[in-house]
Amino acid sequence: MNSATKTRSSTNQDKDSEVSDDSSASTSTETSSQTDDEIDQEYQKRKAMELAKIQGLLRSTLKSIMVINTHKKS
Q1: What pTM does this model have?
Q2: Domain of 51, in residue numbers
């Protein structure tokens, strides 16, 4: 009897997850209404932001290395 109850509850959970999947499907429909140019622009913007973040990290790392090397020489 317990195993049947567990099976039913897991089936209900599956139905709940299906509902949440449906809500995300509407988001993908909205995204598909964008033109290819808009999608490409968003992609390029994200990549540029990622690149700027990496460049900032590299600059701060290089500055730290330079400070460490300066202190070692002194």
Answers
A1: 0.48
A2: 35-74
